[in-house]
Amino acid sequence: VQLVESGGGLVQPGGSLRLSCAASGFTFSSYFMSWYRQAPGKERESVATISNTISDTTYANSVKGRFTISRDNAKNTVYLQMDSLKPEDTAVYFCSVVRYGRRYWGQGTQVTVSS
Fold first, then answer.
1. Number of other residues whose CB lies within 10 A of the CB of residue 10
2. What is the pLDDT of residues 40-89, one digit of tens each?
3. Which of 5, 18, 61, 97 could form a disulfide with 106 if both were Cys (CB 3.0 to 4.6 A apart)?
4. Is residue 90 over pLDDT 80?
């Protein structure tokens, strides 16, 4: 299993970013995919999850209405569109999959929201 995130960077408050996670090594279309984040000094937290059929999505209350998770099963890629970004969204963002009871992580991509 390999998960490679990209798209992070520095953005001003109120701005937008789109993160991507390219997956390989497993049947992508069969698995739920998730985005997590970890801010300095804090525990890693779930941000959003999307079902394998794309029909169901869930979000943390802190990002609901601002972030959108999506996936392209033909490209084995999951996305996180982040709008109306706030300084408290600053964190390393990870994509993740649970396969046969084991959770896999990407290397993460840094998102910094600052003026």
1. 12
2. 999 999 999 999 987 899 999 999 999 999 999 999 999 999 999 999 99
3. 5
4. yes
Q: With 90 as the cut, is the pLDDT of residue 34 above it?
A: yes
Per-residue three-class SS string for 29-72: HHCCEEEEEECCCCCCEEEEEECCCCCCEEECCCCCCCEEEEEE
> Who's near 45: CB < 8 A, 6+ residues apart?
36, 37, 38, 60
Give residue for tokens 């929201």: 113
Cite the beta strand spans of 63-108 per DSSP E: 67-72, 77-82, 91-99, 102-105
pLDDT at 55: 80
Written as one letter, the residue type at 105 is: W
Residue 104 is encoded by which pair of tokens? Answer: 């896999």
Q: Which residues pair with 115 in a beta bridge?
A: none
